[in-house]
Design a protein that fits this description.
Elements (H helix, E strand, L loop, with lengths): L3 E2 L5 H6 L5 E6 L4 H16 L4 E6 L4 H6 L7 E6 L2 E7 L4 H7 L2
Length: 102
């Protein structure tokens, strides 16, 4: 499954309304570690069907970043039933992303 770009308009339907857990990648185009993490998140999206994978650009969606308490990027958050159940800050290897979604 491909990565879904989430913004304030589709957040409710894509994240809160999801029947599956959602992995959210909070990122910005100017962030070097975000650019390193992005291809790994894309790989996870293609390989895993038990989780929905979304990306939120913090510059374009500051209210969502604030709602999730994003203080540093990249930040990965796993949301289940509308609540963050796991989170990770900084660029991490693919194995750590897979551990997050277990």
């Amino acid at each position: 499954m491909s990565v879904i770009t989430v913004n304030e308009e589709n957040f409710r339907s894509e994240v809160l309304g999801s029947s599956r857990p959602v992995l959210i990648d909070f990122w910005a185009s100017w962030c070097g570690p975000c650019r390193m993490l992005s291809p790994l998140v894309d790989e996870v999206a293609e390989e895993q069907d038990k989780v929905k994978v979304c990306k939120i650009n913090v510059d374009d969606n500051p209210a969502l970043a604030q709602q999730f308490g994003v203080s540093s990027i990249p930040m990965l958050a796993v949301v289940k039933d509308g609540k963050v159940v796991k989170a990770s800050i900084g660029a991490v290897p693919k194995v750590k992303i897979l551990e997050l979604i277990k």
